[in-house]
Structures are given as structure tokens and as C-alpha cells.
Amino acid sequence: MTGIGSLPFASATSAVDAIVRLSPEIPFWPQLPTISLAESAICQGLAVVSEHIEPRNGGYGYKVKEGRIDSVLSILHRSSGELTKANASGLECSKKRCRLVSSTPLLL
């Protein structure tokens, strides 16, 4: 079992320290939207196509920019979905901490 969710911390290290202190048995991937909008779940999922999308006018969400749907589909079909340090600092910090304190790897 792994926990995933937004936490109100301003640094990945602070978030992971709190997780280790409060819930050491359960690996947890802290999403940190306080640090950056790129850390939010939606932005993390859409990062690979970020140059081809834009926020919707009036309402929540994003839309594909005019004339870019083929590019978006092509990118999504080729993408591994891998997250990066730039948009998932909490995940990177959690993985490092798990390697330091546990013989069981964090598999996310």
C-alpha cells in the first residue's frame, strides 16, 4: 500500500520528514502544490504535453491548443508517464528516504 496526496509543506524534505515521523510503515508520495503548480496531480499528469495545452476559459481544467491534438496524441502514445524532479520533488525525496531507511524499495 502506498499513500499519495497533497500536503501543505514548502519543501519536499519537510514533507517526507513528517511522513516518516507520523506514518513510517506506509510509503507516501507527497504532492506539494504549495511549492509549485507543477506539483499538483493534474499538472504532473499533463507535464509531458504542457506546451500543447492551456487552461480552459471559465472553469477548471485544460484544453488542447488549436491544431495540436495530433501532437498530443502522438506524445501520449510514446510517453512512459515518468515523473521528474521538476514536477514531483516529493516523490524523489520519498524514494531517496526509503532507500536510506528500508531494504524494501518504494515502487511507484
Please characterize this protein's 3D structure.
The protein has 108 residues and is an alpha+beta fold. It has one domain (3-101). The chain has helices at 12-22, 41-46, 69-78, 89-101; strands spanning 3-6, 28-31, 53-55, 62-64. Helix 1 (12-22) packs across helix 4. The longest helix has 13 residues, at 89-101. The relative contact order is 0.20. The model is unreliable at 102-108 (pLDDT under 50).
Output the radius of gyration.
Answer: 16 Å
H and E order:
EHEHEEHH
Low-confidence blocks of residues = 102-108
Mean pLDDT: 83
N-end to C-end Cα span: 11 Å
Count up the domains: 1
Portion in strands: 5-15%
Determine the fraction of residues in helical runs and give it as a percent range: 25-40%
Structural class: alpha+beta
Give a short account of the largest sheet.
Answer: 2 strands, parallel
Number of helices: 4
**Inertia-based shape:** elongated
Q: Oligomeric status of the shown chains?
A: single chain
Number of strands: 4
In order across it, which strands form the biggest sheet?
1-2
Provide keyphrases for this structure.
108 residues; alpha+beta; two-stranded parallel ribbon; two-stranded antiparallel ribbon; 4 helices; 4 strands; 37% helix; elongated; disordered C terminus
Present the secondary structure layout.
Blueprint: E1 3-6, H1 12-22, E2 28-31, H2 41-46, E3 53-55, E4 62-64, H3 69-78, H4 89-101
Parallel strand pairs: 1-2
Antiparallel strand pairs: 3-4
Helix pairs in contact: 1-4
